[in-house]
């Protein structure tokens, strides 16, 4: 567990512009909708 956490924190630090946190405690439909919105925002920012 500790190694996974350390690796996650390292990757999050190195690729903070690519890794986004999604609240997966919500119902699946909301998680999908929120993720779709986040992806669209990122794509709009890059264009």
Note down, in words, how this protein is organized.
InterPro entries: P-loop_NTPase. It comes from Leuconostoc pseudomesenteroides. GO terms for molecular function: kinase activity. This is dTMP kinase. The protein has a domain at 21-47. The protein has helices at residues 2-14, 28-46. It is mostly helical. It is built from 2 helices and no strands.
Keywords:
single chain; 47 residues; mainly alpha; flat
The overall pLDDT average reads 89
Number of strands: 0
Shape field: flat
Low-confidence runs (pLDDT<50, min 5 residues)? none
Helix count, DSSP H or I runs of 4 or more residues: 2
Q: What is the helix/strand order?
A: HH
Round the Cα radius of gyration to an integer and report it. 13 Å
- Give me the secondary-structure category: mainly alpha
Instruction: Give the N-to-C terminal Cα separation.
Output: 38 Å
The helix content, as a percent range, equals 55-70%
Strand content: under 5%
In this structure, how is the largest beta sheet organized?
Answer: none
GO molecular function, one term: kinase activity
InterPro entries: P-loop_NTPase (IPR027417)
Keywords: Kinase, Transferase
Protein name: dTMP kinase
List the helices and strands and how they pair.
Elements: H1 2-14, H2 28-46
Structure described in brief:
With 47 residues, this protein is an all-alpha fold.
